[in-house]
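Regression report. Comparing outputs from two consecutive submissions.

Submission 1:
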Amino acid sequence: MPTRGGPDLPYDVVAGVTPCPPGWLVASAKLHGMTFAPEDPAVYETFAEVLSVKPAYSVIALNVPVGYPHEVHSGGRTCDRMARRLLGRRGTAIQSPPTRDVLANGHIPVDDHLAAVSLSLLPRIREVALEMAPYRQRSVFEVHPELSFYQLNSDKPMRWSKKFQAGQEERRALLVKRIQGVDRILDAQIEGVEPGHLTDAAAILWTARRIAARAATRIPEEPEWDDEGLRMELVR
């Protein structure tokens, strides 16, 4: 299991982290053996603050791209294309990250299809890019909620899109069934945070647990690296 900074504790703390309008939503849980105890979610203004929490999270499952291509490729990175194929009808949720050039100057070419990432998310991705270095990938892993739900749902894609009420209800029911105490996350009332943010954070928290237990799967099994030495992969 990854090491953590701060005092020695009889448990580890793992986290699912996803962007939200106020900043970064963090759903965390104490992990000790088979005991997995979700905590109250919190919001941090910057990604740097998430990384600076003490004691440090032993695993951060991050719902933002980590590893950025030098050039635009149809369908994005290998991990993006493979994840879409795995998810089938839910695969459209997988967005390709911008290139490093886009991150540096903020200009998205018209033929880049917005790099499949909206302008509103670009500042969040840039935050991560500024903080990430290869050594941080010992504890920070790129994940995606739909891959987490796929695994939670016995390796089957969810029936409904999360954009619909039926999709939100479907995802909540699955989380409640699989994670004891997850209501503490799902029922949280945080200004600017929608129920969909909370379900996403809870789902990727489950993946953080799998990573800590060394039970997670990498997509692809043999990752690619970007020009800065970051692995370009998705973990589920």
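Submission 2:
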Amino acid sequence: MLQQTEGLIKSARESGLTVSLGGEDSSRADMDFLLELLEVAERAGATRFRFADTLGVLDPFVTLEKFKRLRQATEMELEIHAHNDLGLATANSLAAVRGGATHVSTTVNGLGERAGNAPLEEVVMTMRLLEKKEPGIDAGALKMLSTLVANASGRAIAVNKAVVGSGIFTHESGIHVSGLLRDPKNYQFLDPAAFGRSNQIVLGKHSGAATVQWAFNELGITLEHEEAKEILACVRDHYLTNKVPPSREELWRFYSMVKRHCRPACIDQDSMLGIAS
């Protein structure tokens, strides 16, 4: 194998090609043999070695140590190709970079064989925010690209998908929203503006009075704290009954009820069903 590898690389180089040697299933290979292979490849003129975790068996701690050894053994570029069978593709890619990898293999939305590969959008933001390495990718285009690929592939993006999911900038919890309205950094690490997006605050069973006050402020109404608490009871009952946030029209109905001092109607089951209809 070493002889064939050396001969093929030399032949390709003599033909004017740049060579990247792909190491399928490198994560399960004997490390001493892998280092010998790198030595042969570099001597023959290859410029990059592509380390593949083909079955997704690595964890980031092992990945870091393996790439440290690879980096010490060669001057070639090192690429990590991580599979996501255990949900660790992004973590393993980060570990590889810390260990000396110069390139990361990614796919949009993490598409790929079985559980897929390291998602482009996750790796881009991980490199930028945690490694302080600029990948040269426009973060503002990630959501658009993700949606385009999801539509083309017929594979929908999960609401809770990291970076590009629709729920990543959505907040409901009362204490979270209260802190968020004071300072977004209280409960948000990613800046939605960097993605061309904005925060979405929803009213539900976990909401608090501050969320209700914010929602009515968006409607042009300033609520007193006690009014917000009364309307909050209506909001929670509505969500528990209908499993969806109240509409603008329903918020106006709740407001009207509170102003007429008829809060008991908010928690009356028949009344709620009437509102929902």
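Expected: both submissions complete independently.
Actual: both completed, but the second showed a warning that disappeared on reload.
Relevant detail on submission 2: The first strand starts at residue 20 and ends at 23.
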